[in-house]
Design brief:
GO terms for molecular function: monooxygenase activity; oxidoreductase activity, acting on paired donors, with incorporation or reduction of molecular oxygen. With about 350 residues, the protein is an alpha/beta fold. It has helices spanning about 25-45, 65-70, 90-105, 120-125, 135-145, 185-195, 210-225, 245-265, 275-280, 290-305, 320-350; strands at about 5-10, 50, 80, 85, 110-115, 155, 165, 175-180, 200, 230-240, 290, 310-315.
Length: about 350
């Protein structure tokens, strides 16, 4: 199905960026820059700004909701959320309270995107056993969904203390929007559908078309569980500049450095070379980098292929400087977003 109403958003992990002299900025300066980036995203009319939760040196943001609250005070329309909240190593009651508070200060613009997290630092940091990785998320997501009813909850599990007719505050004015971030597991897709939550696919390598069976599974599962339609989104990395070459030359060394660092930690075979990168920025890859026209066409193709409701570009990657990121955001909002909608409208007119 062609969607002309596609929402286009941005995600960042608060990557620690370089200053003008090439040295890394402080965490504090990086966080202040994130607020500026979100403010610009609002000004150019983008739909969503998401901040990921991490607990490691490369990323400055460990408490996204606090940064999002600061952003809420200087923006008017853009919706604000996480990308993702690591629910497995947090407490669902506290997570719900934080998002309900964010929803209040943002006047109803908060969205929780919940996940297990692709990094594991938060588990030992907060005293959780990685052997409980699956059970922690399953149980805590169940409790979070019950809290979304905003009625007193009685609940018993194995990973936290039981609740007996517990009421949680503050109450929201219109309810809270929640998604689940999924990396490619069919079990995770079915779990998301069972709870009737939005599905956010993290596509960070390979062809997006590989995820079409998961989208189909999600829609079938929603029906089988008795839910109506629910949104499907994609989160993927990229960078926009005036020309393809400018964007690629800026992004490649950052992605190579990140991939090789994480690869050493996780024991990945092989390296990340220019050929790998060019495949990813090509038509069948999952990196959305280049000129506004190239990126717009690639996003439109992904929207068509997967029937998306939203596409979120992870615009901050490695040490890319604040000025580059601001220009990328400006181009995304003023040139890419209108062009994506134009391309999808052409499809609808030809249908």
């Amino acid at each position: 199905m062609v969607r002309m109403d596609i929402e286009l958003g941005l995600d960042t992990f608060g990557d620690v960026t370089r200053g003008p002299d090439g040295t890394p900025l402080s965490d504090a300066a990086t966080i202040r820059n994130v607020v500026e980036q979100a403010t610009l995203a609002d000004e150019v009319g983008l739909s969503f700004f998401g901040i990921g939760e991490h607990h490691r040196r490369e990323f400055a943001v460990s408490s996204p909701e606090i940064v999002l609250a600061a952003i809420a005070s200087v923006t008017e329309r853009i919706r604000l959320g996480t990308a993702v909240t690591v629910l497995s190593s947090d407490d669902p009651v506290r997570v719900y309270e934080r998002f309900a508070t964010l929803d209040a200060v943002s006047r109803g613009r908060a969205e929780a995107i919940l996940g297990r997290g692709s990094f594991i630092e938060s588990f030992p940091l907060f005293g959780y056993d990685l052997r409980d990785y699956e059970a922690l998320f399953e149980e805590k997501l169940d409790l979070f969904v019950r809290l979304m009813t905003e009625s007193p909850v009685t609940w018993t599990g194995t990973m936290r203390a039981p609740l007996d007719d517990a009421d949680v505050f503050p109450k929201t004015e219109r309810g809270l929007t929640a998604w689940v971030g999924v990396g490619g597991s069919p079990e995770s897709v079915v779990r998301t559908a069972r709870h009737g939550l939005g599905l956010m696919l993290a596509i960070i390598g390979g062809s997006p078309v590989r995820f079409r069976p998961l989208v189909d599974l999600y829609h079938r599962s929603l029906t089988s569980f008795g839910h109506g339609s629910a949104p499907v989104g994609v989160h993927s990395p990229g960078h926009i500049a005036e020309t393809d070459e400018e964007a690629w030359d800026a992004l490649f060394p950052e992605m190579q450095a990140m991939h090789e660092k994480i690869g050493r930690e996780r024991g990945w075979a092989g390296g990340y070379n220019r050929l790998t990168f060019q495949n990813e920025v090509g038509p069948q890859g999952s990196v959305y980098a280049g000129s506004p026209e190239r990126v717009a066409r690639k996003i439109a193709d992904t929207v068509r292929t997967l029937g998306l409701t939203r596409f979120d570009l992870k615009f901050a990657n490695g040490g890319l400087e604040h000025d580059r990121l601001m220009r990328s955001i400006e181009l995304y909002g003023t040139r890419v977003a209108p062009r994506v909608r134009e391309l999808l409208a052409e499809d609808a007119g030809a249908a």
